[in-house]
Amino acid sequence: MGSSREIAIGPVAVVSMLLSSMIGEIQDPLADPVAYRNFVFTVTLFAGTFQAIFGLFRLGFLVDFLSHASIVGFMGGAAIVIGLQQLKGLLGISHFTTKTDVVSVLHSAFTSIDHPWSPLNFVLGCSFLIFLLIARFIGRRNKKLFWFPAIAPLVSVILSTLIVFLTKADKHGVKIVRHIKGGLNRSSVHDLQLSGPQVGQAAKIGLISAIVALTEAIAVGRSFASIKGYHIDGNKEMLALGFMNIAGSLSSCYVATGSFSRTAVNFSAGCQTLVSNIVMSITVLVSLEVFTRLLYYTPTAILASIILSALPGLIDIRGAYYIWKVDKLDFIACIGAFFGVLFASVEIGLLAAVTISFARILLNAIRPGIEALGRLPRADVYCDMNQYPMAVKTPGILAVRINSALLCFANANFIRERILRWVTEEVNEIKESTEGGIQAVILDMSNVMNIDTAGILALEELHKELLIHEAQLAIANPKWQVIHKLRLAKFIDRIGRGWIFLTVSEAVDACVSSKLTALANC
């Protein structure tokens, strides 16, 4: 149902960590594994439902609230937390915290040192972790060996299982997976919990995981689509992921999304259509039917090593430095998400990132840029005098450009006061010189897409203040939405229809050639 040709679907580290951390606070998987599993299926149903709704109602813009900077910070914080939680499997610790903040995880790790743990577990896990990291390094350095890091986890599982089986290491403290139920997943229709006190919490977790999963899937899809030179439809991707997760919730699956590593393997292998996902599914089906009994002696340390080997790809230090270098406010959102996930929880990290992003949007809306314009020599173009110092200001005329898409209640008074401050400064400068007074103030509204009643009221007040200073207000290049509302408010009649111009240049020429009444009386 989706439009991406390369994307490979499956469980991913970030969503898995998100679900385990948030659901673990509500249901203890050790105390009541059945209730925990049923709650996971319910969350998956809600996640799929939200994703499908987003696609049906074309709400793809919601994903954009998680900016690139927020995702970089979120991924980095999540990777560190995931890595610390793998100490349980790497050290063979039996009792470990279910919390996800770094303080609780480190405290649990240090206090668990007093309890029995297996050095063999640690040695085995670290050995294969080094192998996996070397495989990733080789794959990056030599593109022809792209398949090597892809099969390295499978090789690690096979070799570590054989080592434990042949040496009977499970008798010497190495923890193993033991029995894994084979065959197809059973139906989980009757396991869904759609009533009771925890439905609201399941819906909340489902919404958060749905947005995070969509963000990752669409980011992955867009990345590889841009390489191939085509575009993906975000709403179709949402719809496809939604129905997929709804189906998964009915067949004992948890939230899946587009995996960057699997998609990279797909892309490198030369896949052209989504038939690759069907081949992958058939392979998983055969594995479930045939190979699960062979995983009895697989050490838990190797699973921790596989997860740890994937984490360096989630920590984008170069990306964070790039964000810092280019945009400091974006970097604050990145750091907010990072520290929120690291020291609080996943929800707090995401909330911090979105809040900072919203605050930035509001700050730009409340304090938009206002430019004083001047004419470029030997040209009929008016531009920002700060950006182009050679631009010449027309005597007696103040031309101003408003750099805001919306002139509204949030910024109207700021814009009015800023312009009046400039007029006052101009008047004071003129008094000290021998030049005449200000004839007109020209507002270049080419960037203003719309205006509300507060914006119109601010223009009326500005007009009155300018009349006190014996200056005329002129408007250049207003959009049709703006001019329509100004006409309905009869503001155009107040300033005069002759003071609406197509360009700043026309407005300046009209002000220069025309004599205002006050100047004529002089």
From TrEMBL:
<dbReference type="GO" id="GO:0016020">
    <property type="term" value="C:membrane"/>
</dbReference>
<dbReference type="Pfam" id="PF00916">
    <property type="entry name" value="Sulfate_transp"/>
</dbReference>
<dbReference type="GO" id="GO:0055085">
    <property type="term" value="P:transmembrane transport"/>
</dbReference>
<protein>
    <recommendedName>
        <fullName>STAS domain-containing protein</fullName>
    </recommendedName>
</protein>
<feature type="transmembrane region" description="Helical">
    <location>
        <begin position="145"/>
        <end position="166"/>
    </location>
</feature>
<feature type="transmembrane region" description="Helical">
    <location>
        <begin position="267"/>
        <end position="287"/>
    </location>
</feature>
<dbReference type="InterPro" id="IPR036513">
    <property type="entry name" value="STAS_dom_sf"/>
</dbReference>
<dbReference type="InterPro" id="IPR002645">
    <property type="entry name" value="STAS_dom"/>
</dbReference>
<feature type="transmembrane region" description="Helical">
    <location>
        <begin position="7"/>
        <end position="24"/>
    </location>
</feature>
<feature type="transmembrane region" description="Helical">
    <location>
        <begin position="335"/>
        <end position="363"/>
    </location>
</feature>
<keyword id="KW-1133">Transmembrane helix</keyword>
<feature type="transmembrane region" description="Helical">
    <location>
        <begin position="239"/>
        <end position="261"/>
    </location>
</feature>
<feature type="transmembrane region" description="Helical">
    <location>
        <begin position="36"/>
        <end position="57"/>
    </location>
</feature>
<keyword id="KW-0812">Transmembrane</keyword>
<keyword id="KW-0472">Membrane</keyword>
<keyword id="KW-0813">Transport</keyword>
<feature type="transmembrane region" description="Helical">
    <location>
        <begin position="69"/>
        <end position="87"/>
    </location>
</feature>
<dbReference type="InterPro" id="IPR001902">
    <property type="entry name" value="SLC26A/SulP_fam"/>
</dbReference>
<dbReference type="Pfam" id="PF01740">
    <property type="entry name" value="STAS"/>
</dbReference>
<feature type="transmembrane region" description="Helical">
    <location>
        <begin position="120"/>
        <end position="138"/>
    </location>
</feature>
<feature type="domain" description="STAS">
    <location>
        <begin position="407"/>
        <end position="511"/>
    </location>
</feature>
<dbReference type="InterPro" id="IPR011547">
    <property type="entry name" value="SLC26A/SulP_dom"/>
</dbReference>
<comment type="similarity">
    <text>Belongs to the SLC26A/SulP transporter (TC 2.A.53) family.</text>
</comment>
<feature type="transmembrane region" description="Helical">
    <location>
        <begin position="294"/>
        <end position="315"/>
    </location>
</feature>
